[in-house]
Amino acid sequence: MRAAIGLAARGRGRTAPNPMVGAVIVRGGRRIAAGHHARLGAPHAEAAALKRAGNAARGATLYVTLEPCTHWGRTPPCLDAVLGAGLARVVIGMKDPDERNAGRSVARLRRAGIEVTLGVEKQACRELNRGYLSRLERGRPFTQLKLAASLDGRTATANGESRWITGAPARSFVHGLRRNVDAIVVGSRTARVDDPELTARKGARVLHRPIRIVVDSKLRTPAQARLLDPKDPGRAWLLATRGSIAQRGRRLERAGARVVPVASRAGHVDLRAAWRKLGKLGLNDVLVEGGGELAAALLRAGLVDRLYLILAPVLIGGDGRPVLSSLGVVRLRQALTPQRFQVRKLGADLLLTGEW
Known about the structure:
Blueprint: H1 2-8, E1 22-27, E2 30-36, H2 45-53, E3 61-66, H3 78-83, E4 89-94, H4 104-111, E5 115-118, H5 122-128, H6 130-138, E6 142-150, E7 154-156, H7 168-179, E8 183-187, H8 188-193, E9 200-202, E10 205-208, E11 211-215, E12 236-241, H9 242-254, E13 257-262, E14 264-265, E15 268-269, H10 271-280, E16 285-290, H11 292-300, E17 306-312, E18 321-322, E19 339-346, E20 349-355
Parallel strand pairs: 3-4, 4-5, 6-16, 6-17, 8-11, 8-16, 11-12, 12-13
Antiparallel strand pairs: 1-2, 1-3, 7-18, 9-10, 14-15, 17-20, 19-20
């Protein structure tokens, strides 16, 4: 099962709205085939492993991280392939919470006379698909927030200079985070001022192009922004209030944007409604990279699941730009307290990680 989990993780950031799944087939104590769901639209893990095993699957044991699916999607139901392979035993990491499955495969396998073991490495399988589970169980993607600041909590000098506060190892770490998510989210000011590409890179080579999302209530993102690409239409999403779309939406759509209407709250995008919309649009895992107003608003709304705070060994002072805008904390007991707090070094920088 641990081998299957490792295989499944290779699909991170590429399978949404599907889960990541890995499968290993064992016969006589020997691994004879394996597979994983590599990307959306590709064969599922069980089908890939069974195809590689061929007739050798008869009488064998299938280890799979998630209950095989029973419904048609972009590919046929995995359960049909599993039932037709002549397996003696199926070991499943966890049930699928998707209401279209939800234990149906387990029941059908047992009715067919196949031995089923359920719940092996269950917690590790849940952690593997934390985003998929978040979308199905909470209606929104698993959300990671990355912040980078000086030791005194500043992201830029008073005139806006911010490149680079952190060092090369920290920037490499962030690109690793980007490789493993379905989408990267920034606020409209970050999109305008920093003009980021929001891709995962190693040197000049682009390794992954996740969906780029701008929370942009008034649609102020320039049509020339680097995150927009007319050759890659629909992969940059602008979350805007409905009143702004009629005025500016068409121009940005011609530039390659997908303009997503969201309910407003006090003149801004309602973030809880926006995150529910992201869940409905099939995103499992998102990474938020800025800026301070968006980060604080997400924290106030209880939408952040994991925090990465990178601190550089520099001091900028009180006239620099703060890493967060107001959280509305008046008393210390109101302060947000992440759990499972960890600290490690990234070159000269410190990485602080916590969860809620």
